[in-house]
Amino acid sequence: MFLRRFEPRTGRTTAEVINFVMWPLAVMTVIHRIVVKAVNGSITDDYAPVYNAALAFLNRQDVYTANFNSVDPHYLYPPSGTMLLAPIAVLDPEKSRWLFILANAVAVIIALFILLKMFDLAWTSIAAPILIFAAFSTETVSNTLIFSNINGLILLAEVAFLFLLLRKKDLWAGAAIGLTFAIKPILAPLLLLPLVRGQWKVFVTAIGIPLVLMAVAWPLAADPMAFIDHTFPYLMESRDYFNSAIVGNGTYFGLPVGMIWALRIAFAAMGAVSLWLLYRYYRHDELFFVTTTAGLLMVGSFLLLSLGQMYYSMLLFPLLMTVVLRNSVMRNWPAWLAAYGFLSADAWFSTRFVEEGRAVEYLKPTYGWSLLIVVIFSVLVNRYLTAKREGRLDKGIDPDFLVAVDAPTDATVPAKV
């Protein structure tokens, strides 16, 4: 009888069993990524340039001194971002890096719980441990922590922006995204959402906060003009290393310039058509519209602009979460084949198939982002053409099986008198 007190609780429902299975896996995966993988680090160190810049800023020394002829990580943040990150240099480099890793890991977890709330899923549901386990198993979260960069905090800002935008908290939504602009403008494409939704107050804080921070940081920096003269021109270039955008990999593999531009224009056209269909037929389905459009804007920016790195794919988590919606564009196998390309941590380098393995390894995020745009475009255009053929465009373009579900059944149709 005494030992029965220590008997583990046995799951009695399918949901309980899944929770009992997934929570230990999720928790141990998070701990392993933080305590082992991230603390061990990698030859790629995104944190050292940031720490050195923060230390230089605090000591009123030159910050923008990077040698862009090397392939080592460079410090590229503007003075406003340097000022925001300056407190990390108060501690010694090791402890500071550990705290930065922890801050980004916590930010990812908070972002995931906000996503659960956004999609009306409880943290006690089976979705919570599955989502955490899946997220921390990806290349994007793992390498964000291992390389010790700021993407976890950027993800939190993105999810907070979308969450607040949906709840019409416009000034707060602008503040969330505005803080990221003070560091790097990676979320700038998302401003299309408040623009087309008429949520003009977002722009007050989204633009005002980084301008104010820049005005404060500019006189505090020792070499602010060096950011304009030295760093900014480099930001406008398309490098051919560690760059999974079409222009980066195209240049690396020696594609003709005309072919690179043709690919960029083709995918931009598919993205534009998809954005129009989303706005025309789904803007009143707010959760689907905001999250799907946000994902399309972000994946388009990774693929089509000058720089796209695989660990940026964390910012596609809101789009991937739409799979729980009945009309999601993610409910098909090609969408998740695409996700494998830009999320998987599998290395494809091969000792037997050297060239082929290297090509797949370097191109899989590019292939994944490209396929995702093709999937979104194909799903939406097929829905449009089907609805047009069936003469129901005035009722939207949701697939016919959803239209059938939403239609009144015989039991609900009033009987004829």
Automatic annotation (TrEMBL):
Q: Which organism is it from?
A: Rhodococcus parequi
- Is the keyword Transmembrane in the record? yes
Instruction: Please identify the protein, giving its name as recorded.
Output: Glycosyltransferase family 87 protein
Molecular-function GO term, any one: glycosyltransferase activity
The protein's superkingdom reads: Bacteria
- Lineage in the entry? Bacteria, Bacillati, Actinomycetota, Actinomycetes, Mycobacteriales
Name of the top EC class for this enzyme = transferase
Question: What family name appears in the similarity comment?
Answer: Belongs to the glycosyltransferase 87 family.
The keyword Transferase belongs to this UniProt entry's keyword annotation = yes
* Major location category of this protein: membrane
Where does the record place it?
Answer: Cell membrane
- EC no. given is 2.4.-.-
Looking at the UniProt entry, the stretches that span the membrane are 98-115, 121-138, 145-166, 172-195, 202-221, 259-279, 286-305, 366-385
UniProt entry keywords in alphabetical sequence: Cell membrane, Glycosyltransferase, Membrane, Transferase, Transmembrane, Transmembrane helix
Topology relative to the lipid bilayer, per the entry, is: Multi-pass membrane protein
